[in-house]
Amino acid sequence: MSLWVDKYRPKTLDQLSFHDSISQNLRALARSGDFPHLLIYGPSGAGKKTRIYATLNEIFGSQVEKLKIDVKTFVTSSNRKMEFNVLSSAYHLEITPSDMGNNDRVVISDLLKDVASTEQVDFSHQNTSKTKHRFKVVVINEADSLSRDAQAALRRTMEKYSSNIRLILVCNSISNIIPPIKSRTLLVRIPSPSTTAISSILGQVAKKEGIKFSSSNELDIQKYLVTLADTANRNLRKALLSFETVAMQNETIQLDNKTLTIVTLDWEEIIKNMSNTIRINRNVATLASVRVVLYELLAHCIPPRIILKTLMFNLIKNFKDDAVISQLVDLGSVFDERLSLGSKSIFHLEGFVAKSMVVIDSN
Amino acid sequence: MTSILMQKSQKLDQYEQERLEHTPWVEKYRPRNLDDVASQDHAVKVLKKTMESANLPHMLFYGPPGTGKTSTILALSKQLYGPNLYKSRVLELNASDERGISIVRQKIKNFARLTVSNPSKEDLEKYPCPPYKIIILDEADSMTNDAQAALRRTIENYSNITRFCLICNYVTRIIDPLASRCSKFRFRLLNNENALNRLKYIAEQEHISLDSNQLVLQEVLRISGGDLRKAITFLQSATKLHKSLAAPTEEDGDIQMLDEIPGEAITVESIQEIAGVIPENVILEVVSTIKSKNSKSIITQVNDIISQGFSAQQVLDQLHDKFILDDSLDSATKNKIAKTLFLIDKRLNNGTDEHIQLLDLCLQIAKSL
């Protein structure tokens, strides 16, 4: 019994349903038996990882799905031993260097040199010259959180050992990737799927799972699925997860407009309420009550920057005046920077709340 | 017996051939001697002079990426020593190697004080083989200040048998005492003509079919902004993509065949996509939305850009071009816009949220218009 997200994850490039041209390119690269280093970027839930695995599947066959976890030890420059999990199959390995924090440079240079210094021997495809692979693939997740040091270490490694390894870097945005890396990789942008693409996927899943709707009118169902896709912010994973939750909670999904069943996460709901209070009651008492809520949110491990972002977007939603919106967004951007530089997040979150009250008041 | 040997050597050849196909063009077409180095006339001239007298100063190469700094020193040392002696005479260290203070104290010092190995007779005839070793410190600006300080004395102590070559992008990151011990060479951005010739040469060698030849190569150059390495990598990526797209889809298509297929011609658009550049029409749309000054439509537009996966940094760059070069704006406005651009760029570099920053950027520009 697995989640729908995993159950209906496409395994091969042919099963992928949206962004056909990207799949086409990947297939072509896979068929040629060789590809340059790739840098795959796009918002979350757009199918980056799925595409990578489908491509690897196309190149190496289903062997890549047989994953195992190795624990590797590294010695940092201060002679401290570090353990690090590496997910690997016979043909590729996958690492998330941000697990290592400040020592990611050591991991990157040690691991890659280790892998790169040996040439891959491919016994299974030996006879067909086309599918001879001399290289191993290394997938690096969250490449945008690699430190500058680690990225600098990647530069020369990428060139020097390029006949033995191929890197696939995965990240949400390429703003934090240093230019030398960008210039050494083939950039593949994967946009979020459109709402229609998501709703059609949800529809297929609903059919396969035999989900019952309260009305059998195709249009109503369609409308419901589109709303689901919209609330998930065009994030396919989120949409599927929330759809599954709804389906688990209700035997038949109600489609009448009044009782439209859509799961919103409770912390999102809380932040929404908070933004309403801020807008209506602008005084010190509200600030004190907001502080309690903020502490509660932080205690539940909601990242402060997500809180700030959600709060800001909820606030500006309710204003029509251009000046107010512009000032609020400016505040958001200032405090976002302070959040990422500072260490005690409650100061900055409260600061944002207080400042935004002032801005709303003065207009 | 001979036939077996023949087969073996053939296999080896084939192996070498395949390896060559897998190496990036940047390596494949790295200049082999100083004459091949494109458009760094000044540095090349001086280096050639020093080669004749076989006396090299300590050197500091600096300049933007992709201008041929590493290529120049590699070519120079190959010309000085030849392939045999190269291994024992040249030590190349870059940012991917550990270069903390301990390495400077041990590895570099050890290599620096080694006595110079004797060249063989053949080498002496063919190459100058001067009596010193070369230590190349690539990407020296990523060395810590302590490590650089530790180098100071080492450089002087062993200067009779060792020459240092530091390579960096920003000369300001090299500590003064170190910089003053080296003769500096500035590598300027490549001018279009030379870079274009090099690209043309590679395109010819690799039999690339280009859609309206000149335009595509010029676009490659424009996007890469004088960085030849970037330009060559773009060209290679594009070629690979297009060749495999045009390849026969049958499973039994031979890899040898693949190279003979001319492949689909490379277009300007595909180069742009590979480089991660945002299409012109999208940027124009953003500009017109900003000029409309309607907050709601700006919000939706920014939302759209973010879910398209474009990077905020790239949007910033391209908006910069659009607004600063816009003649219909007066200087005061441009001033304000430039300040906004600077602020947001700084914030993005501090690792902030792209969505918020991009939205702020667009709204602030709209306000100052």
Features:
heterodimer, A: 363 residues, alpha/beta, 3 domains, seven-stranded mixed β-sheet, B: 369 residues, Rossmann fold, Helicase, Ruva Protein, domain 3, Zinc Finger, Delta Prime, domain 3, five-stranded parallel β-sheet, 18 helices
State the helical fraction of chain A. 40-55%
Order of strands across the biggest sheet of chain B? 2-3-4-1-5
Rg of chain B, nearest Å = 26 Å
- As an assembly, this protein is heterodimer
Proportion of residues in extended strands of chain B: 5-15%
Counting DSSP E segments of at least 2 residues, the number of strands of chain A comes to 9
Secondary structure: elements and pairs:
The complex is a heterodimer of chains A (363) and B (369).
Chain A: H1 4-7, H2 20-31, E1 38-41, H3 48-60, E2 68-75, E3 81-88, E4 92-95, H4 104-116, E5 136-140, H5 148-160, E6 165-171, H6 179-182, E7 186-189, H7 195-209, E8 212-213, H8 218-231, H9 236-249, E9 252-253, H10 266-280, H11 284-299, H12 304-317, H13 322-341, H14 345-362
Parallel strand pairs in A: 1-6, 1-7, 4-5, 5-6, 8-9
Antiparallel strand pairs in A: 2-3, 3-4
Chain B: H1 2-22, H2 25-28, H3 41-53, E1 59-62, H4 69-89, E2 90-93, H5 101-113, H6 121-126, E3 133-137, H7 145-157, E4 162-168, H8 176-179, E5 183-186, H9 192-205, H10 213-224, H11 228-246, H12 255-260, H13 268-275, H14 280-292, H15 295-308, H16 312-324, H17 331-349, H18 354-368
